[in-house]
Amino acid sequence: MRFAVLADLHIGRSIPLAIAEHRRAAFERALTKAVDAIVAAGVDYVFVCGDLFERRTLRPYMVEFTQRELFRLVKETEARRKKSPLLLVIRGNHDGSRESNVLEYLKHPLGSYLHIFNDENPTYSDDNIFVVGLSEYDQIDRAFENKAKPALAKAMGIKIVMLHGFVEHYNNVPLGDSSVTLSSLAESGADFVFTGHYHKKCDPRKLQNGGWVLTPGSTEIYDFAEDPEKGLYIVDTDGPQFTWVPIEPLHVMRQVKIDNGRGADPKWYEAKAVETLRGFVDELHAQHKQGYIRIKLEGTLSEGWPSDVSEDRIRGAVPDPLLLWTDVDTLELNLPPSVARPMAENTDVAEYFRDFGGFAEEIREVHGRVREALEEEASTKTGLLTATQREQFIVDWVRRFEAKTFKGEKS
Ligand SMILES: [Mn+2]
What we know:
Helix content: 25-40%
Bound molecules: manganese (II) ion
Number of helices: 10
Order of helices and strands: EHEHEEEEHEEEHEEEEEEHEHEEHHHHEE
Strand order of the largest sheet: 4-3-2-1-13-14
Number of domains: 3
CATH architecture of the largest domain: 4-Layer Sandwich
Number of strands: 20
CATH class of the largest domain: Alpha Beta
Low-confidence stretches: none
Structural class: alpha/beta
Distance between the termini: 78 Å
Mean pLDDT: 92
CATH topology of the largest domain: Purple Acid Phosphatase, chain A, domain 2
């Protein structure tokens, strides 16, 4: 028996929005490449482990495109092997909810090659395999205990679980997210556990019961933090044998941090960003690929403001058709120590606004009252005042501003 195992195709993903069309094209192309690879391998079953789509609200062409590609997978496999493959699909957190399941769009009266698991009865079986397909990603541990384990206890044939959630000590589970344990997977008696949700490809891991767990990762680079190693697995149940089939990402997607431990001025950061961008463009030419980059500026400015680093100037310095987008992120760039001081305790705020003359005194007064209110009345959860509590200060500020003239102009 031969399987294809893939997950997290995210058809329709358009983030970053500045390059939405390129991003959508990348995810669609990954599906096409996956279908080509699966047809070439010639499989009996295809397991799609959730997040086939990016979101519940899809453009109609995306559904049509996906439907057509899945149909092509079936028809081309039939033509080569004289046997129709079966596609098994679970819902991921991006595929909508129990009430509005975007996978429903894929169903077709004649599409008997497609099995979409439903929440009420998450099992599928035939002469060869028995599959539990869990569509809940929340509290995956509980779903596994309550649904997968009892179902597998009575199962015949090759026992398979599909789930969209994390596996502890196999995936790198984010803090606070639910996960299933390797021992729990082993206790279930599953021969294969195929998982989605974790976007990084993992090597097959043998379980205590002799079964295997396998996470193929996503088929395209989902965000700037992800590695470019993308693809799917072909599994031969004899052995078993696992074959990784890489899918080369359409674009180069890169995130680079620029930091200066001792502090530097905006010009230094700008020059470094341009240098980084040049290096990236050289790399794009070497690879003959288009790409996008996010340059994150970190550390502390020695003078000036983050806005003195001009994104336009950086982009303008390295114009290139292969460079689809450059994002310069200054959110982590700290203000110079001299400017940042008002954040500290025991600071005379009026000192910083002395150019305002007598108005600086009023700023000091309001600032003091706001601080007092924050200390005494702020929510312990958010650290903020409620809208009603803020209202009095806003009214007061407006009154004071309206009573003032700046640079001879009535405000
Ligand atoms: Mn996903």
